Amino acid sequence: MAEIWKGKPVIDAMVARMKGEVEALKEQGVEPTLCIFRVGERPDDLAYERSAMKRCDLVGIRVRQMVLPEDVDQEDFEKAFLYVNRDPSIHGILLFRPLPKQLDGERARKLMDPAKDVDGCTDGSLAGVFANTKTGFPPCTAQAAMEILHHYGVDPKGKKAAVIGRSLVIGRPVGMMLMHENATVVNCHTRTVDVPSITRQADILIAAAGVCRGVGADFVKPGQIVIDVGINWDETEGKIVGDVDFEAVEPIVAAITPVPGGVGGVTSCVLADHVITAAKRTLE
After folding, report:
1. Domain region containing 159
2. How many CA atoms lie within 13 A of 18 on its CB side?
3. What integer pLDDT is reported at residue 44 of this predicted model?
4. Average pLDDT over the chain, rounded to whole?
5. Is the peptide bond before 222 cis (omega within 30 degrees of 0)?
6. Which of 48, 85, 170, 210 is most buried, taking the most CB atoms under 10 A from its CB?
7. What single string gives the DSSP state of each residue in 195-232?
């Protein structure tokens, strides 16, 4: 039976650290501030917004909101976005995407200052991930997977890692982050031939394909660590499940993250941590 690596112990440790860091910044006259920039009322955006606000409030981060109507035009959107982007009192921006069809999402991404890009969506942030520099920030979910590995004492050095997925939100960034810690990484994707034969060789498997229970027993081996990044709605059972078939995989591997209760909660914690780091950088 595998160890179940839940997100709560990771969150508790991060929150305890972040509270002290926020207090220290406030003593220096800096109040870490996040702006949540949202267009419309998408239910998934609202759910993540509530989670982010709760996490920020818990550690003492100030949250401001910029909410625009669903039918806002490009000109008014850009005016509002540039106002937030240029405000020195705002250290981080969380821009909910995708934007409505009438807006140019690519232009919005390029307008954002990488120094405030706490969700890792700009070219500057992604370049920082790939070059291993402090430009911008890595995507929150990718870093959340790494935070779980670190908390549970996993050193990727010398290990084989397989990542299922190659998106710029999770797959490719987390692969690069593992490589920076000296793992040997293979990114599998929709054109990879015989994915199970590759993933069975890995010491660390990160599932980020967005396929409901797509990773079964034939993808894993004894002793393996499995990080399930997937969040999928199972209409048959009426519940949220991961990319990994938990019941089939858990008896085989050494450790596995559950869905829900694993990576998801750590993601909003990473967002808060990025805001604090952005505020620190203003003092450097």
Report:
1. 140-264
2. 27
3. 83
4. 95
5. no
6. 170
7. HHHHHTT-SEEEE-S--TT-B-GGG--TT-EEEE---E
Question: What is the rounded distance in angstroms from the CA atom of residue 266 to the CA atom of residue 36?
Answer: 18
Cβ proximity of 194 and 149 under 8 Å = no
The pLDDT assigned to 105 comes to 86
Paired tokens of 128 = 């920082």
Residue-level pLDDT at 48: 87
Residue 283 resides in a domain: no
pLDDT digits (tens, 9 = 90+) for 182-229: 999 999 999 999 999 999 999 999 999 999 999 999 999 999 999 999
Nearest 5°: phi and psi at 38? -130, 140
* Span 180-192, pLDDT tens digits: 999 999 999 999 9
Q: Residue 156's domain is classified under what CATH number?
A: 3.40.50.720
DSSP-derived secondary structure for 29-70? T---EEEEEEES--HHHHHHHHHHHHHHHHHT-EEEEEEE-T
**16 domain residue, yes or no:** no
Do 75 and 154 have their domain in common?
A: no
Gap between the Cα atoms of 138 and 80, Å rounded: 25
CA distance 33 to 31: 6
> What's the pLDDT band for 108 if we cut at 50, 70, 90?
confident
Phi first, then psi: give them for residue 32, nearest 5 degrees: -55, 130
